[in-house]
Here is the input.
Amino acid sequence: AQSVTQPDIHITVSEGASLELRCNYSYGATPYLFWYVQSPGQGLQLLLKYFSGDTLVQGIKGFEAEFKRSQSSFNLRKPSVHWSDAAEYFCAVGATGTASKLTFGTGTRLQVTL
Amino acid sequence: EAGVTQSPTHLIKTRGQQATLRCSPISGHTSVYWYQQALGLGLQFLLWYDEGEERNRGNFPPRFSGRQFPNYSSELNVNALELEDSALYLCASSQDWDQPQHFGDGTRLSIL
Here is the structure.
């Protein structure tokens, strides 16, 4: 069965600094990978997805992620963080060759200092 | 375009009662998913409905059940409520099994 690991529970960055959130997955074939963001009291918003093709994917709000098969990673990056980016970020993998039945990581809580 | 809508926003029940949560998918989406986000347990897949059929379920007891209606909206029913059922229940929808899921804001279920 697939699994997702987000090794960082909590990250603090200064506004304007760059950000990288780590995600490692365990999956036998080419996975369907996602990053979602959750603000307090709200649902999940899709930031970006990787299904196939170009390993560098662009998302909303200036985020990007790079799929690295050799490292089983799908790290999320942003060159300059804004205070409004403070939220919890979840990496997820879809069930066998699909985007259904998502398995989520435990999340990384991002705090942004001014 | 309206997003995924869930009702009610909050639901308070006591142990042993039954709860019904509702979800309306994005227009044109035929797949509906349910997830539980419980404190300390993270986001866990509950159920997947597509074209009115249950396609997959997560590792939850049978007292968690649901259905999908002809208009693709869905209900999640939880019977014989237990304290550990307290959680945020999130509904998501997608156009197909190979399309990204879009989430609603959830129903917070509290068991007293």
Chain A touches chain B through 24 residues (CB under 8 Å). The mean pLDDT of chain A is 93.
